Amino acid sequence: MKRDAEIADTVCPVARSLDIVGDRWTLLILRELFMGATRFEEIQIQTKATPQMLATRFKAMEAGGLIERHPYSQKPLRHEYRLTEKGRAFYPVIYALRAWGETWSKGEEEEIAVRFTHRECGHDIGLGTVCPNCGVHVERKDLEARMSEQFAAEREKRRVAYKGK
Fold first, then answer.
1. Alpha-carbon span 9 to 63, nearest angstrom
2. What letter does residue 69 receive in the DSSP assignment?
3. Which of 10, 12, 85, 105 could serve as a FRET partner for 73 with CA atoms 20 to 30 Å apart?
4. Which residue positions does the secretion signal occupy (predicted)?
């Protein structure tokens, strides 16, 4: 991730966006933040990033205005990470990657990893951004997420393996 002074010498918004969020680790960190993780260890467990990789990305994301650090412990000093408005605005990109991945990057025998239910009407919205039941455009705040058993088990397996180290 590049700092503002190092942004590509182009007016192309795609190139500029990639300078900020265009690597695997940043996208996985953002996924975890959108899933509700806020602490270094949990994000490390679920992304499988090294502590150095994660610390580097957190610093760059904070400098880029995507996240803010908030202390949750004074002794020892520990921080949690929260999305800023700029970071939260990235959600449609993560959601689109999820939909694309569910369609093109998995086996037919696999179920959808995370299902979203429209809180207002209680219907599954599938992979779209419009509720098929009531026709309302939905945002993350309008949705209730439910992990598949397979995805939940995969995440728990990572936690257990990490604790066993």
1. 19
2. E
3. 85
4. none
Do 65 and 11 fall into the same domain?
yes
Residue with tokens 């800023």: 84
Q: Of the candidates 3, 7, 18, which has an alpha carbon nearest to the alpha carbon of residue 59?
A: 3
Which amino acid, 122? G
The total number of structural domains that make up the chain: 2
Amino acid letter for position 70: H
* Residue (of 86, 51, 53) closest to 68 by Cα position: 86
| Residue at a domain's end among 31, 62, 88 | 88
Kindly provide the b/e burial profile for residues 15-38, where b requires at least 16 CB atoms within 10 angstroms of the residue's own CB: eeeebbbeeebbbbbbbbbbeebb
Residue 132 and residue 148 in one domain = yes
Distance CA 115, CA 111 (A): 10
Identify the bridge partners of residue 82 per DSSP, sorted by sequence position: 68
- The pTM of the whole model exceeds 0.85: yes
Regarding whether 82 and 99 lie in a shared domain, the answer is no
- pLDDT tens, position by position, 123-160: 999 999 999 999 999 998 999 999 999 999 999 999 99
